[in-house]
Amino acid sequence: SLTVLQALEDGLKRADADPSVKAVMICGENGKFSAGADIRGFSSPKRHGVPLGPIISLIERSEKPVVAAIEGIALGGGLEVALGCHYRIAHVKARMGLPEVTIGLLPGAEGTQRLPRLIGVPAALDIITTGRHIPATEALKLGLIDEVVEENTVEAAIHFANKV
């Protein structure tokens, strides 16, 4: 939602400007990282606010480490947000993917560029063109995430952020 995008932008800018902040952790709510954009908003004639792509670039450019704590699902724009983070920690039951292709849309926030850079072209093409959801264990093998945890993902991501 536009509210979430604005909160991400505001929070990142505040964290970057605050010298007492050493790292940033991005998580979802209620056990889900992000299911991506609400496609009903695509048909809206007036979309105000910051688009997702520049916010992901803001995450990527942060001089402070940004860690994604992926619980539940990271799909579409949600996975693209995670791809912009410097590190990704996922719960063992998490699933990731770019399913928008199944309804005729291409990932629109540079996921088609970031994913191949991270995991290589063959694996990225499979994920991008099929829209399949991959489990955390496969994502770890591909290099999409840095660590899989069975415990509290948010606490694990904070611990990871403190290490880096």
Which strand order do you get reading across the main beta sheet? 1-2-4-7
Q: Given the helix and strand composition, which structural class is it?
A: alpha/beta
Question: How many structural units, i.e. domains?
Answer: 1
CATH architecture name: Alpha-Beta Complex
Sheet bearing the most strands, described?
4 strands, parallel
Beta-strand residue percentage: 15-25%
The end-to-end distance, rounded to whole angstroms, is 30 Å
H/E element order: HEHEEHEEHHEHEH
Low-confidence stretches: none
- The global form is globular
Tell me, what is the CATH class? Alpha Beta
Share of helix, binned: 40-55%
CATH topology: 2-enoyl-CoA Hydratase, Chain A, domain 1
Mean pLDDT: 91
Number of helices: 7
Question: How many β strands by DSSP?
Answer: 7
Determine the CATH superfamily: 2-enoyl-CoA Hydratase, Chain A, domain 1
InterPro entries: ClpP/crotonase-like_dom_sf, Enoyl-CoA_hyd/isom_CS, Enoyl-CoA_hydra/iso
Protein name: Peroxisomal bifunctional enzyme
Catalytic activity: a (3Z)-enoyl-CoA = a 4-saturated (2E)-enoyl-CoA; (2S,3S)-3-hydroxy-2-methylbutanoyl-CoA = (2E)-2-methylbut-2-enoyl-CoA + H2O; (3S)-hydroxyhexanoyl-CoA = (2E)-hexenoyl-CoA + H2O; (2E)-hexadecenedioyl-CoA + H2O = (3S)-hydroxyhexadecanedioyl-CoA
GO molecular function, one term: (3S)-3-hydroxyacyl-CoA dehydrogenase (NAD+) activity
